[in-house]
Amino acid sequence: MEADFPGLTANVNVSGDGLVRLGIVRPEAVLILAELIVSGLAAETPTQSEMLPHEARCTRPHTSAA
Fold first, then answer.
1. Can you name the residues that pair with 39 across neighbouring β-strands?
2. pTM for the structure as a whole
3. CA 26 to each of CA 9, 20, 31, 33: distance values in angstroms, whole numbers, following the listed order
4. For the segment 10-64, what is each residue's pLDDT rounded down to a tens digit?
5. Which of 14, 35, 41, 48 is the least buried, fewest Cβ under 10 Å from its Cβ?
6. Cα–Cα distance, 30 to 4 (Å, whole number)
7. What is the DSSP letter of 47?
8. In 1-66, beta strands by DSSP E
9. How far apart, in whole angstroms, are the C-alpha atoms of residue 39 and residue 46?
10. Facing residues of 21 across strands?
């Protein structure tokens, strides 16, 4: 990933929380980063079948009648 993010640096703040600085980023690298974030979030999000009934959400797209 060094070629896609040449200014990438990592550090922690005084509380120990991780910080990442990207520096100047090409548009193509932003798309790569967005895909990585989305796939990471998807891995952390429970699937519909793992949710309790009160947590369930409608995943079908809503369409308006014309």
1. none
2. 0.44
3. 16, 16, 9, 11
4. 899 999 999 988 888 888 888 988 999 899 888 887 665 555 555 555 555 555 5
5. 14
6. 9
7. P
8. 9-12, 18-21
9. 13
10. 9
Cβ proximity of 57 and 47 under 8 Å? no
Q: Which residue has the tokens 């548009």?
A: 27
Q: Which tokens in the block code for residue 41?
A: 């979030």
pLDDT of amino acid 7:
82
φ/ψ of residue 9, rounded to 5: -135, 150
CB 8 within 8 A of CB 20: yes
Residue 50 near residue 32, CB atoms below 8 Å: no
Torsion angle, alpha carbons of 53, 57, 59, 65, to 10: 110
